[in-house]
Design brief:
Strands 3, 5, 6, 9, 10, 17 and 18 form a 7-stranded mixed beta sheet that branches. Strands 13-12-11-14-15-16 form a 6-stranded parallel beta sheet, sandwiched between helices. It is globular. The protein is of the alpha/beta class and about 325 residues long. It folds into 2 domains: about 200 residues, Medium-chain alcohol dehydrogenases, catalytic domain (Quinone Oxidoreductase, Chain A, domain 1, Alpha-Beta Complex), CATH 3.90.180.10; about 130 residues, NAD(P)-binding Rossmann-like Domain (Rossmann fold). The chain has 11 helices and 18 strands. Helices cover about 30% and strands about 30% of the residues.
Amino acid sequence: MKALVYTAPWRVELQDLPEPPVRANECRVRVRAAGVCGSDLDGFLGRSKKRVPPLVLGHEFSGEIVETGREISDLQVGDAVAVYPLLACGQCVYCRSERHQICANRKVYGLDFHGALAEFVSAPRHCLFRLPAGMSFLEGALVEPLANAIHVMANFPAMEGKTGLIYGAGPIGLFVFLVAKHLGARRLAVVDLNPHRLAVLKSLGADLVIDASQQNPVEGVLQWAEGGVDFSVDAVGRSICRQNALACTAPGGKMVWIGLSEDLCEIDGRAIVTRELEIKGSYAYGLQDFSRSIAMIAQRILPLDSFIYETTLEQGQAVFEELASGQSPLVKAVFRI
């Protein structure tokens, strides 16, 4: 099969690989669309410790079932599916409470083994979600990143009328913005360093966009929000981003961190205590978040066409280099396979 293989930092190559075997409880999926995640880009840049070359990257994908294992009875060849890309043990306390994403023994496509930037992938039955009639494969590839945003926003149960800050205008930050807006956030600010991405967020209805290379983001947000935002989301993960998001959050407010660019950071502990701030981590999504994501996309309530860039595996090296530039106008790249 044709696959885009990460072979060394800053290098992906189109190669022929054997098709994956199909176990009794699995289906072979002909991948039709696969998105590029920021973590895939970290792998390409050599920053991801667990993404060891040679490796097929990719965990945001959909496709068509072309073979079913002997234990599969409720899916058929030809069914269109989105694939939940986390394989958990299914037995631990986290799996039993439907928090598979924090199972200590979880494995992830494109991280622990070959992923979705290839023609075929085998997946166990519990990871296969049938796509509704009329949903395209491209939309199916967006289920995974949107599920991240849905999981983030579940931490803010009362969104109606709130003011928020999203740090990072990449794909996850953009999806968080869309979900927050859909849930009734009154005003939303976005901070980034990429003017092209900020322009996209502005066109989608962001009330304030700040290029942190041109303006002090803390001063700008605090002036705009009159003392601070009700909630903030860091979708970058750098220490300065977390510090600034905290500084912009009003007393009694809540922050959620989903960005993973840096492991360690300094934060103002006194501000957390004296302003009674909450900080919560958010990693990936559960099976219910994944299902909710499919339902939301099927409702056609999100303007997905406005920021998707479609490409092919043959253009893989050029696309990864473009995204790695940090100033690319591309927001969400999706490979048609």
